[in-house]
Specification:
The complex is a heterodimer of chains A (388) and B (166). Chain A is an alpha/beta fold and 388 residues long. Chain A is 41% helix and 13% strand. Chain A folds into two domains: 142 residues, Aspartate Aminotransferase, domain 1, CATH 3.90.1150.10; 238 residues, Aspartate Aminotransferase, domain 2 (3-Layer(aba) Sandwich), CATH 3.40.640.10. Chain B is extended and about 60 Å long. In chain B, the strands form two sheets. In chain B, strands 2-3-1-4 form a four-stranded antiparallel beta sheet. Chain B has a two-stranded antiparallel sheet with strand order 5-6. Chain B has two domains: 41 residues, Arc Repressor Mutant, subunit A (Orthogonal Bundle), CATH 1.10.10; 81 residues, Alpha-Beta Plaits. The chains are: A alpha/beta (388), B alpha+beta (166). Chain A: InterPro entries: Aminotransferase_I/II_large, AspAT/PAT-like, NHTrfase_class1_PyrdxlP-BS, PyrdxlP-dep_Trfase, PyrdxlP-dep_Trfase_major, PyrdxlP-dep_Trfase_small.
Chain lengths: 388, 166
C-alpha cells in the first residue's frame, strides 16, 4: 500500500504553502474582491499573442536551442545593456528558462554543495527557502523589518554571514513588500558581499515596475556582474505570467552549469512563448510604459487610502503590492486576513506567509481595476472601524 | 501648449473615465481634491477638455434606428483659408458628427448620422455635393461598430486569474 512514507523526507519536511488555505477559502466564495493576486491584471498585448499564433501557423513547433532561441538571447542582451547597463554575451551568458521560477531553482542547484548556507532576504517569495532546501543547502533567513521599510541593512547582512555562507538571494522590487533598493543601498550591500566572497541571486522580475526612483540592477554595481546570477523574465513586465518564460544572466561558468541542469530537466523553454517574448522585447515597450503608469496611479491611490483608514503603509517603490501594517487592530496577520475574508469578502494574503517578519502585515496586490480597488478600500474601511 | 506631468496624467485618466471621483483621482496623482478641480476647470476653460462624453452602444437598443456613414469628400481649397472654410461650412450641419482633414486621395472625411439611409442620401445629394468647393463625394455606410475610441463593444475579456496566488 502506497502511503506518505514513500515521499522523500526532504519534500515531506517542506512547509506547506501558506497561501493554499486562503485560496481554498476564497475560491469557494461568491462576491469576493481579491487583493490576493500575484500577477498583472492586464492580458498580454495582442501583438505578442499574435506573434505566438503566427509562429504556430508557420509550424515552429520543434525544440529550440537548449539555452533558447539565439535571436531572443541577442534581444535580451540588448535589453539588459540598454535598460540596466550590464553587458552579457548572448552565446554564453544568457539562458531562457520556464519562468523566473525555474531560473531560481537552477541557480540554487548549480551553486550549492550539501550543507552550504544561502541567505534568504525575507519577507520574500514563498519558494526561495524550500528551493534552497531541495538543493541540499541550508536556508538562513534574514528578517528585514518594517521600521526600515523592509530594506536589507548592511548590519543585518553582516550578522547573518558565517563561514558556511555561499550566496544570498534577494528580490527587488520586492514581492510582498514592494520595497526597492536604490543604488547607494546596493553599493553598501555589495561591499559586504564582495568582502565575504559571496554570490548574489538577484530576482529582478519586477525591475520594469519601479515607480519613483529608476531601478538599479545588482549586476550593474561595480564589478558585481562577476558574482551575480540575475533572474528576470516576461511575466510581470509584459503581463505574460501564463507563458512561463523567464531568463537568467550570469557569469559564463555558472550559466553553463545551469544550462546543464536545464538540458536535463526542461530541454528548452516553450517555443511559441519564445516567439511571443521576441515580439515583446522588440515592440512591446509602449505597453510596458502604459502598464507602469497605471500601476503607479493605483499604487498612489491604495497607499493613500490605506493610511487614511488606519492601515499604516510605507510607499512601496515598485512591484504591485502594498504591505500595510495591521498593528492597530491587534490581530495576527492570519486572523486579520481570515476575518476580512469572512466578514467583508476581501481576499488579502497574510504577511507571515512570506516570512516571520511579515507578521503584523498583509500583502495587498493592487493589480486590479480601480473599481475593484475602490470597493476593497470601502470594505476594509468598514472592517477597520470594527477592529480598532 | 505645455502641460506639466500631473496635468497630463489627469487628462489621461479622465479620458478613460471622466466620472471618476475627484478625491480618488487626487490620490492617484498624489494631489489634493482642490488642486484636481482647479486643474480641470483650467483645462476646460482652455478647451483642452472639450466635453465629457460617454460611449453608448446604440446597436443594442431596439428603439434606435440611426445609421452612420463615412463620406470621403474631395474639395477645392481656397486661397488664404485653405480647407478651413469649406470644413466649417460642412461641420456646421447638425447631421455631421465629425470632420477630419485627411492626407491621401481625398481631402475631408465627414461622418454623418441620420435616421435612415435615405436621410443621409438626401443630405449628401442636397447639402454636401452642392457646396461650391466640393468636387466629389464617396459615401460608405457603417454596418457594425466593433471598437470605438479605444473601447471594444463586445463583452470585455473576463478576469480568469486565480483569486489568491503567491
Amino acid at each position: 500500500m502506497i502511503n506518505e512514507n514513500y515521499v522523500s523526507k526532504t519534500v515531506a519536511s517542506l512547509p506547506p504553502s501558506g497561501i493554499r488555505k486562503f485560496f481554498d477559502l476564497a475560491a469557494n466564495m461568491e462576491g469576493v474582491v481579491s487583493l490576493g493576486v500575484g500577477e498583472p491584471d492586464f492580458v498580454t498585448s495582442w501583438s505578442v499573442r499574435e506573434a505566438a499564433i503566427h509562429s504556430l501557423e508557420e509550424g515552429r513547433t520543434s525544440y529550440t536551442a537548449n539555452a533558447g532561441l539565439l535571436e531572443l538571447r541577442k534581444e535580451i542582451a540588448g535589453y539588459m545593456e540598454q535598460a540596466f547597463n550590464v553587458s552579457y554575451q548572448p552565446e554564453h551568458q544568457i539562458l531562457v528558462t520556464v519562468g523566473a521560477s525555474e531560473g531560481i531553482d537552477l541557480a540554487l542547484r548549480s551553486i550549492i554543495n550539501p550543507g552550504e548556507e544561502v541567505l534568504v532576504v525575507s519577507p520574500c517569495f514563498v519558494s526561495y527557502a524550500p528551493l534552497v532546501t531541495m538543493a541540499g543547502g541550508v536556508p538562513k533567513i534574514i528578517h528585514t523589518t518594517g521600521e526600515n521599510q523592509f530594506k536589507l541593512t548592511p548590519a543585518e547582512l553582516e550578522d547573518a554571514i558565517t563561514p558556511n555562507t555561499k550566496a544570498m538571494i534577494i528580490c527587488s522590487p520586492n514581492n510582498p513588500t514592494g520595497t526597492q533598493l536604490n543604488k547607494e543601498e546596493l553599493i553598501k550591500i555589495t561591499e559586504i558581499i564582495k568582502k565575504n566572497d559571496l554570490l548574489v541571486i538577484a530576482d529582478e522580475i519586477y525591475a520594469e515596475l519601479a515607480y519613483d526612483e529608476s531601478f538599479t540592477s545588482f549586476a550593474s554595481v561595480g564589478d558585481m556582474i562577476n558574482r551575480t546570477i540575475l533572474i528576470n523574465g516576461f511575466s510581470k513586465s509584459f503581463a505574460m505570467t501564463g507563458w512561463r518564460l523567464g531568463f537568467v544572466c550570469a557569469p559564463r561558468e555558472i550559466l553553463e552549469a545551469m544550462l546543464k541542469l536545464h538540458q536535463y530537466t526542461m530541454m528548452c523553454a516553450p517555443t511559441m512563448a519564445q516567439y511571443g517574448a521576441l515580439e515583446a522585447l522588440k515592440h512591446g515597450w509602449d505597453d510596458v510604459e502604459d502598464m507602469r503608469s497605471s500601476y503607479r496611479q493605483r499604487r498612489n491611490y491604495i497607499v493613500k487610502s490605506f493610511n487614511e483608514i488606519g492601515l499604516a503603509c510605507h510607499n512601496p517603490g515598485g512591484a504591485f503590492y502594498a504591505f500595510p501594517s495591521i498593528a492597530k487592530t491587534g490581530l495576527s496577520s492570519q486572523s486579520f486576513a481570515e476575518k476580512l475574508l469572512l466578514e467583508e469578502r476581501v481576499a488579502v494574503v497574510p504577511g507571515d506567509v512570506f516570512g516571520e517578519s511579515g507578521e503584523g502585515y498583509i500583502r495587498c496586490s493592487y493589480a486590479s481595476s480601480m473599481a475593484q480597488l475602490q470597493e476593497a478600500v470601502k470594505r476594509i474601511a468598514r472592517f477597520m472601524k470594527n477592529y480598532q | 501648449m505645455h502641460l506639466n506631468d500631473k496635468e497630463l496624467e489627469i487628462l489621461r485618466i479622465i479620458e478613460k473615465n471622466s466620472r471618476i471621483d475627484y478625491s480618488d483621482l487626487a490620490k492617484m496623482v498624489v494631489s489634493t481634491e482642490k488642486e484636481v478641480e482647479e486643474t480641470l476647470t483650467k483645462l476646460e476653460e482652455m478647451r483642452i477638455i472639450v466635453r465629457y462624453a460617454s460611449i453608448i452602444n446604440w446597436a443594442k437598443i431596439d428603439e434606435h434606428h440611426g445609421v452612420t456613414a463615412m463620406i470621403d469628400v474631395k474639395v477645392t481649397p481656397k486661397r488664404g483659408v485653405g480647407f478651413d472654410e469649406v470644413a466649417q461650412r460642412i461641420y456646421r450641419f447638425k447631421e455631421v458628427e465629425s470632420v477630419y482633414l485627411m492626407s491621401g486621395v481625398y481631402d475631408l472625411s465627414v461622418i454623418v448620422e441620420g435616421n435612415s439611409m435615405n436621410e443621409i442620401a438626401r443630405f449628401v445629394s442636397e447639402k454636401l455635393s452642392t457646396l461650391d468647393s466640393v468636387i466629389s463625394t464617396t459615401t460608405h455606410f457603417i454596418l457594425k461598430k466593433y471598437k470605438h475610441d479605444g473601447t471594444i463593444f463586445d463583452q470585455p475579456e473576463e478576469d480568469n486569474r486565480i483569486v489568491v496566488s503567491p
